[in-house]
């Protein structure tokens, strides 16, 4: 019981510290920073004995990955995670003072998610992770997925996915003060007993995001650990219906303390700032935008070179400078995997599916960047060239974009390869 009291004391002090109240070293309960609960900037824990059990937990975590995949695959992922943690957050534009905020989810949003979970939790599918992926200890505590767009699930559809995005978007926009566009929605992930979520910053373009706790059956709170603007750990508790807004590309977040309970179900809803302020009065912001880097990344930051390597053609956003303003819905629909809208566009003006913006990007390139397999299938069926290159044939193909944005194992990548697409 002494350890339980000690941890609760630390978490209370962190709660207070996050709100600007002076914290004293009472009962050895002091706030901690990075590399204490889990390696974040460096692999060696530097905690001065504050959380002694965490060192062995991390060792077990990595040993489990080694046993499953071999050290090379696991270390590659782990080194990449730590490099991102070091360089990416300091290279991001911060849109809020704190980087995170806990609220109650809008009633409509929570009801959509809870209904879908209740209908389909018995049909959840084990999540498949790439070889060596160390973000969750899935080799010891499998994770399961209840996708909102999986038509094998009762009520699952692209329409439901869009309803979730539409219900969350105004909340995240109001918090950040920026116009956002959807980038990713993982569905409802169900963690199991013993699960650990390795502290990390999300891969871009996952920038402005929300976590909603849909359901849980736990013996004690499974703490969400985030790091504030001063590098101090803050532990956040969640219950069903709670929603945490967070700047996921710049905020280190994870759950390094093993889950004690049967399951914990969250959905992750991600957006990308367009660069336009939410209540803009003029277009002055356009002049301030970099022609190559996205508006949320500092061109001189430590992550800029790595972002350039992963995105050799730069950031692309369909805009009023595109060839025809009336073709913009095709770009947006492709980026969001909205096949229904693409079908309607094809009937009304199929030329829009072949349109190019000022950088030579077509809807098929947006679908590739978003990992939108169904949109890719539809566009290829409509005759859109799957090997079309950006930048007047001097750029990259959809397959290259999909691999850079995702992985060799992604469904969109596998589809393009099966169709004989070229790099």
CATH 2nd-level architecture of the largest domain: Sandwich
Helix content: 25-40%
Stretches where pLDDT is under 50 for at least 5 consecutive residues are 1-29, 318-327
Percent of sequence in beta strands: 15-25%
The main β sheet shows up as:
7 strands, antiparallel
User: By helix and strand content, what is the structural category?
Assistant: alpha+beta
How are the strands of the largest sheet arranged? 1-9-6-11-4-3-2
Q: What is the CATH first-level class name of the largest domain? A: Mainly Beta
Mean pLDDT: 86
Coarse morphology? globular
The count of β-strands is 11
Q: Under CATH, the topology of the largest domain is which?
A: Jelly Rolls
Order of helices and strands: HHHEHEEHEEEEEEEEHHHHHHHHH
Amino-to-carboxy terminus distance: 58 Å
InterPro entries: Ankyrin_rpt
Keywords: ANK repeat, Signal
Organism: Nitzschia inconspicua
Protein name: Ankyrin repeat domain protein
Summarize the structure.
With 423 residues, the chain is of the alpha+beta class.
Protein model, in words:
ANK repeats lie at residues 359-391, 394-423. This is Ankyrin repeat domain protein. Keywords: ANK repeat, Signal. It comes from Nitzschia inconspicua. 35% of the residues lie in helices and 17% in strands. By secondary structure, it is α+β, with helices and mostly antiparallel strands. The chain has three domains: 2-87, no CATH class; 94-275, Sandwich (Jelly Rolls), CATH 2.60.120.620; 311-418, Ankyrin repeat-containing domain (Serine Threonine Protein Phosphatase 5, Tetratricopeptide repeat, Alpha Horseshoe). The strands form two sheets. A seven-stranded antiparallel beta sheet has the order 1-9-6-11-4-3-2. A four-stranded antiparallel beta sheet has the order 5-10-7-8. The longest helix has 19 residues, at 158-176. The termini are far apart. The model is unreliable at 1-29 and 318-327 (pLDDT under 50).
